[in-house]
Amino acid sequence: MKKVLFIIFSGLIIASTIFVYFFLIKRPDSTVRLTRVMDWIRNPGKNPEWAIKVGERCGDAPFSMPTDGYIGFLWDDSFRPGHHHSGLDIFSGTEIGITPIHATYDGFLTREIDWKSTVIIRIPSDPLQPGRQIWTYYTHMADEKGNSFVSEDFPPGTSEVFVKAGTLLGYQGNYSGTPGNPTGVHLHFSIVKDDGNGQFLNETIIENTIDPSPYFNITLNANLSPPEIPVCP
After folding, report:
1. Is the predicted pLDDT of residue 13 greater than 60, yes or no?
2. pTM of this prediction?
3. Which domains occur in the chain, in start order?
4. Nearest Cα to 50, choosing from 218, 223, 221?
5. What does the angle CA 115 – CA 112 – CA 63 come to, to the nearest 5 degrees?
6. How far apart are CA 67 and CA 64, in angstroms?
7. Which own/partner pairs from 115-118 qualify as long-range (CB within 8 Å, at least 24 positions apart)?
8. CB atoms within 10 A of CB 225
9. CB 77, CB 223: distance < 8 Å
């Protein structure tokens, strides 16, 4: 029994040490952002200046903002050791199914047959690197059980439908991918690389995604982000 308790206690000490090192020493900004996200969710009306607006464009940025809310987590943020966040999490501060999500740029929309909360848009020519194909990815558009908030214009199985920037794609939800285990109400948005054969790569791997900062004209890279709230300059 003593041996078991010693092993458990040792494990807790190791886990605590890793947490303190990784989050409070190595990545303190992630901890600050987590605190701010919790503050925003509890009382979004307290800091309205933190919010971006759907359709807003920062200067000459090629992409417009995809939704309303607070950009709480950034590209390459870390929530646990070894984790690298592949996009942006934008929290509305509202209930599910209320806050609209719009396309940030013209492209061709696909929704796989088993996608409950997700669409992806192919952009044949990257506005920052003409000739390179990229994809914009939008997810969490469903309730916690997986009931979809994606626009009825894009049912499961939709393939290569042209949409213009500003097209309504759906509404923010809290579907985590596991029914009954909700996440906070938000949009996860990322820019995904092409595999060179006309298909998108696995969005969950950060090496398959692109830093969105220059596309929105805001510093949205967790490694470079200043302490200020990420909004248009």
Report:
1. no
2. 0.86
3. 28-216 (2.70.70.10)
4. 218
5. 90
6. 9
7. 115/150, 115/156, 116/142, 116/146, 116/147, 116/148, 116/175, 117/141, 117/142, 117/146, 117/148, 117/149, 117/150, 117/173, 117/175, 118/150
8. 21
9. no
The tokens describing 200, both together, are: 């998108």
Sequence letter at residue 62: P
Q: Average pLDDT for residues 117-129, to the nearest whole number?
A: 98
Looking at every residue in the chain, the average pLDDT score rounds to: 88
The tokens describing 17, both together, are 């040490």
Residue 49 structure tokens:
């200046």
Query: Given the structure tokens 């309730």, which residue do they identify?
Result: 143
pLDDT at 30: 75
Distance CA 61, CA 78 (A): 26
Dihedral sign for Cα 95, 99, 103, 108, please: positive
SS3 of 190, please? strand
